[in-house]
């Protein structure tokens, strides 16, 4: 496994591999890897000749009051997990390497960002789209792998690839969960012992909403109330949102029909957790 910190070195390495006819699978991350990331890496390993993992905590996607400085980092542990998952190249640039000067061009996302997490984090997905655009040009992958846990991010990347005509196949991998249903997340380490016991109720609430729909309920507000009630009854967290939209367009819906997402965000003392279910409603 090779660790590369410089953009020009990364590009030269990839160009050489592509000239040999090798396919490149790419998993962009902010590090502090968990089993969700490993699932992406393993899928990339199955489907490509070369697997590239990027580790870069991107300052552009953190708001003024968000946790950039305390975002968990453990590069040595990440490298060990990457090696175990069969990664060929770890791209590990510094902030100065990725942003050597004030950007003259950034990416502005207009669709799919004014709802869910995007509503309370203005500019967040502009930061995501800008860094992913840079990474796509640096790594030049044939396939890029993203987890469904952050379904809004997946929707934004789907639009980015389509609108900018990147010759890249977006591979979406299902959310990886703990045995009790809690979605794997780097931020789970911030939960207290009691909050960790409560947190599986988020996925249980989503399942309750899904069951309501499968039983025939099509009223958005009634399904939403069933989810909210379950969260309030079983956790001490504060609900940020429980919302339903068409997916991946993330447009408001009056009645539950077609491909939809049920998504939620709940704030605990030191962590804000998100989760979702995507389903097709006939």
From TrEMBL:
<dbReference type="GO" id="GO:0004592">
    <property type="term" value="F:pantoate-beta-alanine ligase activity"/>
</dbReference>
<comment type="pathway">
    <text>Cofactor biosynthesis; (R)-pantothenate biosynthesis; (R)-pantothenate from (R)-pantoate and beta-alanine: step 1/1.</text>
</comment>
<dbReference type="GO" id="GO:0005524">
    <property type="term" value="F:ATP binding"/>
</dbReference>
<feature type="binding site">
    <location>
        <position position="153"/>
    </location>
    <ligand>
        <name>(R)-pantoate</name>
    </ligand>
</feature>
<keyword id="KW-0566">Pantothenate biosynthesis</keyword>
<keyword id="KW-0547">Nucleotide-binding</keyword>
<feature type="binding site">
    <location>
        <begin position="147"/>
        <end position="150"/>
    </location>
    <ligand>
        <name>ATP</name>
    </ligand>
</feature>
<feature type="active site" description="Proton donor">
    <location>
        <position position="37"/>
    </location>
</feature>
<keyword id="KW-0963">Cytoplasm</keyword>
<comment type="similarity">
    <text>Belongs to the pantothenate synthetase family.</text>
</comment>
<dbReference type="InterPro" id="IPR004821">
    <property type="entry name" value="Cyt_trans-like"/>
</dbReference>
<feature type="binding site">
    <location>
        <position position="61"/>
    </location>
    <ligand>
        <name>(R)-pantoate</name>
    </ligand>
</feature>
<dbReference type="GO" id="GO:0005829">
    <property type="term" value="C:cytosol"/>
</dbReference>
<dbReference type="GO" id="GO:0015940">
    <property type="term" value="P:pantothenate biosynthetic process"/>
</dbReference>
<comment type="subunit">
    <text>Homodimer.</text>
</comment>
<dbReference type="Pfam" id="PF02569">
    <property type="entry name" value="Pantoate_ligase"/>
</dbReference>
<feature type="binding site">
    <location>
        <begin position="184"/>
        <end position="187"/>
    </location>
    <ligand>
        <name>ATP</name>
    </ligand>
</feature>
<comment type="function">
    <text>Catalyzes the condensation of pantoate with beta-alanine in an ATP-dependent reaction via a pantoyl-adenylate intermediate.</text>
</comment>
<protein>
    <recommendedName>
        <fullName>Pantothenate synthetase</fullName>
        <ecNumber>6.3.2.1</ecNumber>
    </recommendedName>
</protein>
<feature type="binding site">
    <location>
        <position position="176"/>
    </location>
    <ligand>
        <name>ATP</name>
    </ligand>
</feature>
<feature type="binding site">
    <location>
        <begin position="30"/>
        <end position="37"/>
    </location>
    <ligand>
        <name>ATP</name>
    </ligand>
</feature>
<dbReference type="InterPro" id="IPR014729">
    <property type="entry name" value="Rossmann-like_a/b/a_fold"/>
</dbReference>
<keyword id="KW-0436">Ligase</keyword>
<feature type="binding site">
    <location>
        <position position="61"/>
    </location>
    <ligand>
        <name>beta-alanine</name>
    </ligand>
</feature>
<dbReference type="InterPro" id="IPR042176">
    <property type="entry name" value="Pantoate_ligase_C"/>
</dbReference>
<keyword id="KW-0067">ATP-binding</keyword>
<dbReference type="InterPro" id="IPR003721">
    <property type="entry name" value="Pantoate_ligase"/>
</dbReference>
């Amino acid at each position: 496994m090779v660790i590369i910190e410089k953009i020009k070195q990364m590009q030269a390495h990839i160009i050489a591999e592509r000239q040999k006819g090798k396919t490149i699978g790419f998993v962009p991350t902010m590090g502090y890897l968990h089993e969700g990331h490993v699932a992406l890496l393993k899928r990339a390993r199955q489907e490509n000749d070369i697997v590239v993992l990027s580790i870069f905590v991107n300052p552009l996607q953190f708001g003024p009051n968000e946790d950039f400085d305390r975002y968990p980092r453990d590069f040595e542990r990440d490298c060990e997990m990457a090696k175990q998952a069969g990664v060929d190249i770890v791209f590990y640039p510094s902030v100065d390497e990725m942003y050597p000067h004030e950007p003259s061009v950034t990416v502005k996302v207009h669709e799919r960002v004014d709802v869910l997490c995007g509503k309370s984090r203005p500019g967040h997905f502009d930061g995501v789209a800008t860094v992913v655009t840079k990474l796509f040009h640096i790594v030049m992958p044939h396939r890029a792998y993203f987890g469904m846990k952050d379904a809004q991010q997946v929707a934004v990347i789907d639009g980015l690839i389509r609108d900018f005509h990147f010759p890249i196949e977006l591979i979406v991998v299902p959310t990886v969960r703990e045995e009790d249903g809690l979605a794997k997340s780097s931020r789970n380490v911030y939960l207290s012992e009691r909050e960790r016991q409560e947190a599986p109720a988020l996925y249980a609430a989503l399942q309750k909403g899904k069951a309501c729909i499968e039983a025939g309920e099509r009223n958005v507000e009634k399904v939403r109330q069933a989810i909210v009630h379950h969260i309030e009854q079983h956790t001490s967290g504060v609900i940020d949102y429980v919302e339903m939209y068409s997916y991946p367009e993330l447009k408001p819906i009056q009645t539950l029909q077609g491909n939809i997402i049920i998504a939620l965000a709940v704030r605990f003392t030191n962590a804000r957790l998100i989760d979702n279910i995507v389903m097709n409603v006939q």
